[in-house]
Amino acid sequence: MNGILPLWKERGMTSHDCVFKLRKILKTKKVGHTGTLDPAVEGVLPICIGQATRIAEYLTDAGKTYEAVVSIGRTTTTEDAEGETVEENLSPKTFSREQLLEALQQLTGEIEQTPPMFSAVKVNGKRLYEYARKGEIVERPTRKVTIYSLELLDDARSFEGEEVTFRIRIACSKGTYIRTLAVQIGEKLGYPAHMASLVRTASGTFTKKDCVTLKQVEEIMNEGNINEVILPVEYALTAYPSIEVDESIEKQILNGQVLPIHALLKENDKIVYSIQGKAYAVYIQHPTKEGYMKPEKMFPIN
Fold it and tell me: What range(s) does the Pseudouridine synthase II N-terminal domain occupy (predicted)?
């Protein structure tokens, strides 16, 4: 059993919970997820099975799309609705649509974020949430992330109330914390804020329409039709140019040899060599030999 299972993770479960349950349902140990989703978040979570676990990092590194509800008026320890209130401002507020759009525009592109204390980022060998649970605050590394687009989904011309909420759609790079982004939006507006809810609507090329729930996986497995929902490894490699191996270099590719660089690698991070449409090797620029390329991943041909 090899391939990618596009799972719709439901609220209340960790990503590890999903992997644990799938190992039992699919009766295989080689199962891995492609990017943690918090228990309170639902959405697209591609699962790699068998040989596909070799390219899990590619899916983890792929861009993501989310829909979130931002709440202006209160910050929390976790920067989402699960945490305890840190700061509260329930004075009457009024924002025009133009003010919100300006705040979103200022946070589009490459921005800096400081991961929340309740996160899995490691500092001095320990995850931040381990410090947070003990009431300890440590210095956190600031990181650069890219917000490709930040769209206001509500049609209202103005937003009013003691706690103002609105929906946004975010397309972003890996490592982006949407709850931190919610706080940053509040900062641009001059008020405390948190993320009220979140759904991941896309991960790389996978969207909700591609996904199945754990219950559906179990039903399909019992019917003996599991291959209908497990997609081939090639599906996760569509972002990279694919080259059909010809006879002149077939032996070298099959042996994973270092080769003169292909012209496509001057414009792309990776290229995929295929045999009869089946991916066999992913090549990248050689890190030390200029003008050459080397295999980063190899897949057995059945």
Answer: 23-178
State how far the Cα of 269 lies from the Cα of 241, in Å rounded to an integer.
Answer: 10
Q: What was the pLDDT predicted at 152? A: 98
Report DSSP letters for 48-101, one per residue: EEGGGGGGHHHHHHS-EEEEEEEEESEEETTSBTTSPEEEE--S-EEEEHHHHH
What pLDDT digit, counting tens, does each position of 241-261 carry?
Answer: 999 998 888 899 889 999 999
> CA 104 to CA 92: how far, in whole Å?
21
* Cα separation, 136 vs 51, whole angstroms: 41
Rounded to whole angstroms, how far apart are CA atoms 254 and 299? 9
Low-confidence ranges of the chain (pLDDT < 50): none
Looking at 2.60.40.290, 3.30.420.40, 3.30.2350.10, 3.10.20.30, the CATH number of the domain 3-62+204-235 comes to 3.30.2350.10
Give catalytic residues, as residue numbers: 38
Structure tokens at 44: 């697209």
- In 3D space, the residue among 152, 184, 175, 176 whose CA is nearest the CA of residue 165 turns out to be 152
What is the model's pLDDT at position 119?
67
Tokens for 12, please give them. 């209340």
SS (H, E, C) 170-191: EEECCCCCHHHHHHHHHHHHCC
Per domain, the residue ranges of the chain are 3-62+204-235, 64-202, 242-298
CATH assignment of 242-298, among 2.60.120, 1.25.40, 2.30.130, 3.30.300? 2.30.130
pLDDT recorded at residue 301: 65
CATH superfamily, region 64-202 = Pseudouridine synthase (3.30.2350.10)
pLDDT tens digits for 94-124? 999 999 999 999 999 999 998 776 666 677 7
pTM value is 0.87
